[in-house]
Specification:
This protein has 197 residues and is an alpha/beta fold. The protein is built from six helices and twelve strands.
Length: 197
C-alpha cells in the first residue's frame, strides 16, 4: 500500500458524498463501492449513515454482505457512522424483522436511541485519540452502545452513553463527523488503515 490508502465508502444509501470528501481531505484515495469485486481493491472501508435495515437488505441484494463480513474478519479496517455503527455491531438490541449486521465489534447497540429525526442535535464530543479539543458530533436518529465487550475500547461518551468505540481495526461512531467539515475522525481512521497496511 502506498502512503495514500484506497478507502471505499459503501454506496448503497446514506451520505456517501460527504464521506468521500472527508476521506480525500484526510489524504486517502476515496471511492464509492457497491459490488463485491470492488471490495477486493480496498485498504479500508467506511460504512455510512442511512437506514440500517434498508442498508443490510441492500448489502445482501448487491451480494456484498458476506464478502464484507469476510474482509472484516480478515482484518480490513472499517469505520461505521450512525447506521454504519449498527451494521458493525455483533448484536442489535431491538432489530427490525429481517435485519442483519455485518458484525466486527463485540457490542450491543440500541437503534434510534437518542430519539427520532426531529430530536436530532449537535454536541461537542471528546474523543480519545483525537487532539485539539472536542469534535462536533451530529446525532441524527443516532444509536448508542448499550454494552461493549472486554476487547472494545470506548473512545467517547455523551450523556452517559457510549458513542464512539474501537476494536482492533474497526472504528464506529454514533454521530456523523462527515457533516461538520472537521476531518479529524476520518484522519484517525486513515491512520488506522496505514498502520494495518
Amino acid at each position: 500500500m502506498s502512503d495514500t490508502p484506497v478507502i471505499g465508502v459503501l454506496a448503497l444509501q446514506g451520505d456517501v458524498r460527504e464521506h468521500l470528501i472527508a476521506l480525500a481531505a484526510a489524504d486517502a484515495q476515496a471511492r464509492p463501492v457497491r459490488r463485491p469485486e470492488e471490495l477486493a481493491e480496498l485498504d479500508g472501508l467506511v460504512v455510512p449513515g442511512g437506514e440500517s435495515t434498508t442498508m443490510s437488505k441492500l448489502a445482501s441484494l448487491f451480494g456484498v454482505l458476506e464478502p464484507l463480513r469476510e474482509r472484516i474478519r480478515d482484518g480490513m479496517p472499517v469505520y461505521g457512522t450512525c447506521a454504519g455503527m449498527i451494521l458493525l455491531a455483533d448484536k442489535i438490541l431491538d432489530p427490525r424483522s429481517g435485519q442483519e449486521t455485518v458484525g466486527g465489534i463485540d457490542m450491543i447497540v440500541r437503534r434510534n436511541a437518542f430519539g427520532r429525526q426531529n430530536e436530532s442535535f449537535e454536541a461537542a464530543v471528546e474523543v480519545a485519540g483525537i487532539e485539539d479539543g472536542p469534535v462536533e458530533g451530529v446525532f441524527i436518529r443516532a444509536p448508542w452502545v448499550e454494552s461493549a465487550g472486554a476487547r472494545v475500547e470506548v473512545l467517547a461518551e455523551h450523556g452517559g452513553h457510549i458513542v464512539a468505540v474501537r476494536q482492533g481495526n474497526a472504528l464506529a461512531t454514533s454521530f456523523h463527523p462527515e457533516l461538520t467539515g472537521d476531518h479529524r475522525v476520518h484522519a484517525l481512521f486513515v491512520d488506522m488503515v496505514r498502520a494495518a497496511g
